[in-house]
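Crash report, auto-generated. Payload:
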Amino acid sequence: MVQQERARLTREKILLGAADVIRRVGYAKASLGQISETSGVTRGALYFHFGSKLDIAAALVDEQHRITREASEMILATDASALELMMHLCLDLAQRLVADPIVRAGVRLTSDTSTFDSPIGDPFRDWIETFGALATRAQDNGETTATVPPDMAARFIIPAFTGVQLVSDTLTGREDLPGRVREMWEILVRALVAAENLATALQMLDDVFTAPGSDEEAMR
Amino acid sequence: MVQQERARLTREKILLGAADVIRRVGYAKASLGQISETSGVTRGALYFHFGSKLDIAAALVDEQHRITREASEMILATDASALELMMHLCLDLAQRLVADPIVRAGVRLTSDTSTFDSPIGDPFRDWIETFGALATRAQDNGETTATVPPDMAARFIIPAFTGVQLVSDTLTGREDLPGRVREMWEILVRALVAAENLATALQMLDDVFTAPGSDEEAMR
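Recovered output after restart:
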């Protein structure tokens, strides 16, 4: 058991070291030597866990999915309304993209066309499906109008979020990401919510993005 | 003069060959040998024009900027309204991202974090500035409401478009991109346009994205 725990810790050290090297020099230029050095793990131990750089990249993407999936399951289990859940999910992922090196590396590896031979579409499909279900619930419970079909809303919100985090990364290293995601939702609620419910939706947005005990607080 | 023209053609062949190689294997794995072979240009001629792979990447990005800047200047010189211009600019870029190999390669190189040592933010800043000016005009001429500040709209529209093209590329190789950009605008007009002007804006959207003589026709 102690040995198993030690192996798990070594694997984690390698992934964190790899995330750091990839952040600094990019995946293409990252070498196993640098990853071994940065993570403080011998080459032998590194090869015991991973056969190649591509294996490490795949493990980072898997680990990022595990982290974000667990986080979103916790959010989805709360009793927040469907519209509120969509805001929470976006804010939570934005905050992880700022603060969690594994999530940063996983997302970067996924969007970099040079990492894998074929682009990874599954996370986008999963998120679009989750948001499609939430947008349907939001429409059914009267939070949003029927004007924009739920699947169309989901097909836009996920790519829009993807672009917002990418441009924020390019322009400010994601420093302004939570603020940009808030602006995204200020625009989205105006498209999705009926005039008579807009004040409620904007108050909800304010609560999600600034209230104490919000995701922002929980991450500190 | 003949020699100058020949040199220009050779340079163009190299860039098209490089765009093709980068599309197939990605920038990191592209070699000068492959680029020379694919473009049908000798290694000697290739080295006469470009000192390194990075030089070719920089030239592709420059050429993509020239093409899209010229296209957007032509669109901006028409007498379309500010809101219509924003739709036209998005559709035109979407169509070039489907059909023009140089534009595809340039955009891919810019968003790939592995290409250049520091991310290229200037194109995003330029587009956000252009759209900020157009969104201000749209508000001044009453096409859009004052609810969403023009700079906030621009700060969202450009990242949103960036993500829409990226996700469309990942999921369908950009086959559905013009349709997705249309959906993006169907949602945006509902956020930006007053209820009493919505029918006009949706008719405009329909004209831009489907009418004969639109950008879509002009590209064929």
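Post-recovery validation: The first helix of chain A runs from residue 2 to 25.
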